[in-house]
Amino acid sequence: MERSDSAETETADTLMTTVSRHHFGDEMDEPAFSISIIENMKEDYGLFVWPCSVVLAEYVWQQRLRFSGAGVVEVLGAGTSLPGLVAAKVGADVTLTDDSSRLEVLDNMKRVLDLNKLECNFCFQVMGLTWGVWDASTFSLHPKFILGADVLYDASAFDDLFATVTFLLQSSPGSVFITTYHNRSGHHLIEFLMVKWGLKCVKLLDAFSFMPSNKASRLSGNLHLAEIVLDSQWAEIPVLH
């Protein structure tokens, strides 16, 4: 019996799919909670947990008192959604987003919510959001925190990314963009973009300065975390063209 191409593709995708578990708590022998993530190693999906996502998720856990009861948008390519799921676990109202055209990623987010039994217990929504594209759903977002893990990788998308971040910061006074990234070529580029879009960095941390040793030992690279806000001198900078 011949197998169809679609059946072969489905089998290949299944073989490349795995579930990873991530633990959070002050005592690792008895973690406060664990989160399961469905990962797919197929290259064009990119549905696996990057080191920057692990770092940002741990930071959310350590800063959990700030996030409890707050509106959180993991707005910038949420992918496997680990930081947003941690935010939900500590009591935040969370919106998970990724590129509107990446339907397989958005579907995976919903499967991860089901896997972690979060769909009925927390205020959640999953939505498509494409950087630099303005629609009704974008205007409905008023987050206190905007999370973005490893979003500074494609220079051609930086302006759309920062336009989106700036718009969301303007839509919610006092909000903060928290991002983790690989510092591959110094901080000059991110500094230039912040000046261009009327933003400023209020906290910059080496990831290894706060990661628990058992997690830090599994990471590599020059990883940083930044908290970014509107520069009050440029609070009214226009972002829509």
DSSP summary: helix tally: 9
Helical content, roughly?
25-40%
Low-confidence stretches: 1-12, 237-241
Which structural class fits the helix and strand makeup?
Answer: alpha/beta
Q: Sum up the overall morphology in one term.
A: globular
First CA to last CA: what distance? 57 Å
Beta-strand percentage range: 15-25%
Find the count of extended strands (DSSP E, 2+ residues). 9
Short description:
The protein has helices at residues 5-15, 51-62, 64-67, 82-89, 103-115, 136-139, 158-171, 188-196, 213-216; strands at 17-24, 33-40, 71-74, 93-98, 124-128, 145-149, 176-182, 199-206, 223-230. It is α/β, with parallel strands linked by helices and 241 residues long.
Describe the 3D structure.
The chain has 241 residues and is of the alpha/beta class. The chain is built from 9 helices and 9 strands. The strands form 2 sheets. Strands 5-4-3-6-7-9-8 form a 7-stranded mixed sheet, with helices on both faces. Strands 1-2 form a two-stranded antiparallel sheet. It is globular, with a radius of gyration of 18 Å. Residues 1-12 and 237-241 have low confidence and may be disordered.
Annotation keywords:
9 helices; 241 residues; two-stranded antiparallel sheet; globular; disordered N terminus; alpha/beta
Strand and helix map with partners:
Blueprint: H1 5-15, E1 17-24, E2 33-40, H2 51-62, H3 64-67, E3 71-74, H4 82-89, E4 93-98, H5 103-115, E5 124-128, H6 136-139, E6 145-149, H7 158-171, E7 176-182, H8 188-196, E8 199-206, H9 213-216, E9 223-230
Parallel strand pairs: 3-4, 3-6, 4-5, 6-7
Antiparallel strand pairs: 1-2, 7-9, 8-9
Helix pairs in contact: 2-4
